[in-house]
Specification:
Elements (H helix, E strand, L loop, with lengths): L15 E5 L12 H11 L3 E4 L7 H10 L4 E3 L1 E3 L9 H10 L3 E3 L6 H9 L29 H13 L2 E3 L5 H14 L4 E3 L11 H9 L3 E5 L12 H11 L4 E4 L10 H13 L5 H16 L3
Parallel strand pairs: 1-2, 2-3, 4-5, 5-6, 6-7, 7-8, 8-9
Length: about 300
């Protein structure tokens, strides 16, 4: 810090964090959208994707781009109950408004609720600001057949060529979703925080998903005090197994008790660099792969 201003890692120039949380939100957040924008500009980053568990973020990011047209700040829709659930109509509206990513359920996912029913002491989502009923959403029926509405959502995503992200689904659901997405012609599949303790994806399954064309989100939150699922060094090993060309570094930060997302990404990049990754490998994971997913030339 110099004069109170953060010093950001030089590799952040041109980077895009595909997984940030900001206020306004029902959950306690570190920053507003505009404070995130300030940090993006100060660090030289190219942009970010703002994610909300409770509402679509397409309209607010459209306003940001009007004010800051040089930034690539985008939004999308999480298929949680309070945002419409697994609703093709909600997904279609979000896509037509300009959504770049459609996320499968997160806090409404059955796997998420099951995790927090066993881990009530966690600081993130141990209690929910909106009452959610029942055991949680799954993408399949009792016979593990993908629901018709999920097939329709996949068709909409494929037609629009936007990103399908897997949210907090269980590993089995992620695998089934990836297979169905391929059948529908979904070209951009992002396996979210694959190492995070809520619903971790076994490394061999991550490898198989990569062979099918998916990109794997490597999420700093999994290494932090909230979860401590693995160390950055252990995550670095998984990246080596998968290849940096198949990975995206994200923070999933924005919680009120954690550092701001841009500061967190700066730390993450520095720690990954100390694991032996080259500048080009890191840029592949924070610049080139995010731009490819977002369709930025």
């Amino acid at each position: 810090m110099i004069g109170g201003d953060p010093i950001y890692h030089p590799l952040l120039k041109g980077a895009i964090d595909l997984h940030c949380h900001c206020a306004p939100s029902l959950y306690p957040r570190k920053q507003t959208d505009w404070e995130l924008v300030r940090d993006l500009k100060a660090s030289g980053m190219a942009g970010a994707v703002i994610k909300s568990h409770e509402s679509q973020t397409v309209d607010r990011t459209a306003l940001i781009r009007m004010a800051e047209p040089e930034l690539h700040v985008y939004g999308g829709l999480v298929c949680n109950e309070m945002a419409g659930g697994l609703s093709p109509a909600s997904v279609e509206a979000a896509i037509k408004l300009g959504a770049k990513i459609i996320w499968m359920p997160t806090v409404s996912a059955r796997a998420h609720r099951s995790y927090y029913s066993r881990n009530r002491s966690g600081r993130i989502h141990a209690t929910e600001p909106v009452r959610q009923r029942g055991p949680g959403l799954e993408i399949w029926d009792e016979n593990r057949r993908i629901l018709p509405e999920v097939h329709e959502i996949l068709r909409l995503i494929a037609e629009a060529d936007v990103v399908l992200a897997t949210g907090h689904l269980s590993p089995g659901e992620v695998y089934a979703l990836a297979k169905a997405a391929g059948e529908h012609g979904v070209a951009k599949l992002l396996i979210q925080h694959a190492d995070l303790g809520i619903a971790p994806i076994p490394l061999e399954m991550q490898r198989e998903l990569v062979r099918g064309g998916a990109l794997i989100e490597k999420c700093y939150l999994a290494c932090g005090a909230d979860f401590r699922t693995l160390t950055v060094e252990e995550m670095g090993h998984t990246i080596r197994v998968l290849d940096p060309a198949s990975c995206v570094l994200v923070t999933d930060y924005g919680q009120a008790h954690n550092p701001p997302p841009v500061e967190a990404l700066s730390r993450f990049v520095g720690e990954i660099a100390r694991c032996g990754f080259s500048d080009e490998e890191i840029r592949r994971m924070i610049v080139h792969n995010p731009r490819q997913l977002l369709g930025i030339d």
